[in-house]
């Protein structure tokens, strides 16, 4: 077919390739959620319904995109991790980010009424922005995940204390802010306990740790699988046979997708679940 005189515009399309052989993290964040939370009267500092809606949307994204190995969410943000060998075919940042953002937003809106049956959505509708970052090593990826979970802890301890001072202690916003200025974690724990008899340790795990989404296979004994080294040593992804590839895909599709509130900073979480970093699906657990 002859090219049209218009076709030169194709040359304006510039590459936006992500670095090969790296872990790609797409983090999405609710746009203007401070205002959005006020409009729908989200409970402060944590609204269980809103967080569970975020988790349900993330779970749906992982169901549709089997290349995502793990996701982590807190507040109005979610990070989705693509395994380093899984993004060979599509490494255009804009395409990955737009796929995640639109799939997540679609499900967030679709699932809204199930989580907020008494508050129908109305414009301006919820929307999310997203960015993609490449992490070259497992250590970098683990540190990224730890960074988000530490952030969750710091913010939640602060917010829990701040809102206790206001809601239970009758303080004003400025007064509470002044009181908390320069305090350490131990001070906040002490304020919660001595003034309000709140033991921070007993706060819901979802608020303290955020939410981790991953496929459920049989856990392994820690120390029996050293995937990290195996995966790091991989210079280029192993060429799988077509049947092996199809088998893995089937096993991934069969796996249940769990949403849990676990410590992802310590080694234990990763040691027990070697499939997260190896990319090889594990054993499907027997029905209890
Ligand atoms: N009340 C309430 N607000 C929340 C909750 N989760 C997220 N938010 C709001 O969402 C904001 C997220 O922060 P950020 O992304 O920096 O603000 P944004 O630019 O307004 O989206 C928080 O500051 C809260 O105002 C929740 O569970 N309850
Ligand atoms: Mg936001």
From TrEMBL:
Keyword Secreted annotated: no
Domain tRNAHis guanylyltransferase catalytic: 6-136
Names of the cofactor(s): Mg(2+)
Binding positions (Mg(2+) 2): 29, 76
Reaction equation(s) it catalyzes: a 5'-end ribonucleotide-tRNA(His) + GTP + ATP + H2O = a 5'-end phospho-guanosine-ribonucleotide-tRNA(His) + AMP + 2 diphosphate + H(+)
InterPro entries reported for this sequence: Thg1_C_dom (IPR025845), tRNAHis_GuaTrfase_cat (IPR024956), tRNAHis_GuaTrfase_Thg1 (IPR007537), tRNAHis_GuaTrfase_Thg1_sf (IPR038469)
Name listed for the protein in its UniProt record: tRNA(His) guanylyltransferase
Source organism per UniProt: Diplogelasinospora grovesii
